[in-house]
């Protein structure tokens, strides 16, 4: 089946995570789309019942597209720690608890780990673009690295202060916004999605 192109016009950003909104808006900027957030449209957050990043991204994108009557882009992402069998993975947001406190989530990761053992980890980002008629296109990006403890830096969001991408010496929380946006799991997924977006202006 041929892949579907997104036409110029309005696009719903189907996320309630402000950190993702910043990064996705930056990536979408050059494509001349009129981006509206799920929050602005008062859309509900669907329950994430999928068992993979792509399944959850598709479920969120389809729910937003159907509710708004507009194409919608959703992101499902998370931190996967090798020594924890890939946890927290698709449950990365839930590890922060109802208050969405990522210091709590990072301490849970630290407490679950043998501090002497290997600390390999990766971030995954699935991006799904859905249309109101139920068509959906999905891609996935990944970035490998190591866990740092204690967390360092106030930039970024979520688990950024405890993740050092391969080839870097500072955490995603310490590097500048521009440096993180230049290459990370979300930017890598976006590169795969870019051919489906309106040409850059
Ligand atoms: P939406 O579902 O509304 O998009 P969410 O925060 O619930 O927001 P997810 O279910 O995809 O999103 O949870 C992914 C979590 O993984 C997210 O809350 C972050 O804490 C973490 N995460 C994802 N990308 C990250 C990044 O680039 N840096 C740090 N943490 C990240």
Q: What structural category do the secondary elements indicate? A: alpha/beta
Amino-to-carboxy terminus distance: 28 Å
The fraction of residues in strands falls at 15-25%
The biggest sheet amounts to: 6 strands, mixed
List SSEs in N-to-C order.
EHEHEHEEEHH
Count of separate DSSP helical elements: 5
Describe the protein.
This protein is α/β, with parallel strands linked by helices and 201 residues long. It has one domain: Maf protein, CATH 3.90.950. Helix content is 26%, strand content 22%. The protein is built from 5 helices and 6 strands. It has helices spanning 18-28, 53-68, 102-112, 177-182, 185-193; strands spanning 10-13, 34-37, 72-81, 120-130, 136-147, 163-165. Strands 2-1-3-4-5-6 form a 6-stranded mixed β-sheet. The radius of gyration is 17 Å and the shape is globular. The two termini are 28 Å apart. The relative contact order is 0.18. The model has no long low-confidence stretch (mean pLDDT 95).
Output the keywords.
alpha/beta; Maf protein; six-stranded mixed beta sheet; 22% strand; globular; binds inosine 5'-triphosphate
How would you summarize the topology of this molecule?
Layout: E1 10-13, H1 18-28, E2 34-37, H2 53-68, E3 72-81, H3 102-112, E4 120-130, E5 136-147, E6 163-165, H4 177-182, H5 185-193
The structure holds inosine 5'-triphosphate.
Brief synopsis:
By secondary structure, this protein is of the alpha/beta class. Helix content is 26%, strand content 22%. It has 5 helices and 6 strands, in the order βαβαβαβββαα.
